[in-house]
# Entry
Amino acid sequence: FQTFEGELKWKHRNITYRIQNHSPDLSPEVTDDAFARAFALWSSVTPLTFTRLESGDADILIQFGTQEHGDGYPFDGKHGLLAHAFPPGKGIQGDAHFDDDEFWTLGKGAVVQTRFGNAEGAPCHFPFIFEGSSYSSCTTDGRSDGLPWCSTTANYDTDHLYGFCPSELLYTLDGNANGEPCVFPFTFEGRSYTACTTDGRSDGYRWCATTANYDKDKLYGFCPNRDTAVTGGNSQGEPCVFPFTFLNREYSACTSDGRTDGNLWCATTDNFDRDHKWGFCQDPGYSLFLVAAHEFGHALGLDHSSVPEALMFPMYRFIEGPPLHPDDVKGIQHLYGPRTEPDPKPPTSAPLEPDSTTQSNACPTLPPRPTGPPTDRPSAPPTAGPTGPPTANPSVLPTEPLDPADDVCGIQIFDAIAEIQGQLHFFKDGRYWRVQQGSKARAQGPFFIASTWSALPRKLDTAFQDPLTKKVFFFSGQQVWVYTGQSVLGPRRLEKLGLDPKVRSITGAIQHNGGKVLLFSHNQFWRLDVKKQKVDRSEPYSVEGMFPGVPEDTHDVFLYQGKAYFCQDHFFWRVSLHNQVNKVDQVGYVTYDLLHCP
Amino acid sequence: APRGRPSAGPIVIQFPGEKTNNLTNQQFAEEYLNRYGYVPAGLLHRDGSSLKHALRKLQRQLALPVTGELDSATIAAMRAPRCGVPDVGR
# Structure
């Protein structure tokens, strides 16, 4: 072992520490527990005690940061340099800094600790079975509120044990909002934000407001990374978007193409060539517990050891057993002497990772930290959709009492109607209902649009799902949003699609073969190339010329089971598109014929 | 069948937001030796013996075979994840 030049050490035994911020990679409970266990290693062999302070001056200040983070010793992005700490002393001396471009885990991949649910905060069990399908990451399937969840056993269908996964919709980190979840949309410097942002910051951390108006309320928190988030790159915290285009090739999985270091990466939009947004895919990560234990060794006065098995050896090595080597013990006892009391003080919280040997079966004893009033806590278990693939069936209904606006059969004119994931969706004033294809059953709903597609406004004009990419396009006024799973691109202006700025709204859409979609605006339409996201030509076609027999000014057009529906008032004109001949084959009522209302 | 273009080898690009890392092993090693305290900045360029000396020091510290050469084991050790506190000096 080695000590620092001058044998720097603390002159007192009751060492204090303060955790200044948290990594978005881990829940605060897991982070705090890792630090507490790391300190406990050293207190178990010395007379030192470690007390956590919530505020004020502490001997050891713990901080996550990236690149140049204020001390003149910049971090270096992902991998390489992981953390550093200063030897004992005043001011910055004794402080420990962790590079947040690393992926912090307990050494064996993402630690997805749940909150709420019915599994008492147990970690996710991956893979798990839900409705017969296997899931290797948290999912929003089976829910209408957009909250990612996971099963905490291998089979949700049999065990029904679940919890909610880290998400900005569930809680925030640090900031000044006491961990309250994000509120979307929120206003910052007059602009509306529908997702976490790094705007207004230079450190790359993603944040959100926890009220609708940051400019007025100044309440904010940092967004936890979802389990699907990339690390590093220039899109920290964003999920991969598959497929994505890179050098004109399409990728449906993480790749090391374009790199010499073999690290897997992905784009966080559908086109790297265009957007240049990317990040590293998840790997086993680095154990925060082991790295912290090493750094705290420095903070107590130990320099690097030349014993490869020692914790104070400079290189990172994942081990599952007790990390202190006799060399480490000799070193720290050289500075502070051996422990004098017979029983080492246990860590301030129970280990999440018993003996650092297990992860997925760990059972935390800390209760979840409250993040708001009890009514804010999601409490309904994930529920199976009635039929069809699990991904399309959010089925938890809003909890407010039924009011007339909730009665789908009382609605004469819908804002938009669209077939999404094989189900007909009816949108109206921030809510939607859905009807299973071929089913004569009543519509399910209402569901909140904001819960399923949080970026969207209440009033939609049109929606459609591209059959090839499964992307869902939403139009409202002169704006368009494109959803790929839970990730959203937009809002973008209609002009970006090559439409004339005079086009005030899109009133309907019909998907065609070959990646083309007809976009309608009242009596005219354009052909949109979905891949290019551009209309073919600026001159619109006439609806009358292509679809004879439909009313002149329809307010909604959609495709359902291969037929086009043109809506006016509460009627529809159904057009058969077979054999290149467009012919009206039915006129019916939206309410009775499509919604099966009595 | 149409013949594909002859392969020019894998394309490597500069990813936005990522520091250029196209240093040669020699340049990388010099930067590493300086960063972790094995040699003061700038001294390596005066003569080759200082590099050998610094490498020997590093190899002893990292429990590598002491060759004084920039061999593959040494390069691999230098590229491994580690603590940012210098191994030598303050």
In short: Chain B has three helices and one strand. The CA atoms of residues 25 and 35 of chain B lie 15 Å apart. The beta strands of chain B are 82-83. The two ends of chain B are 65 Å apart (CA to CA).
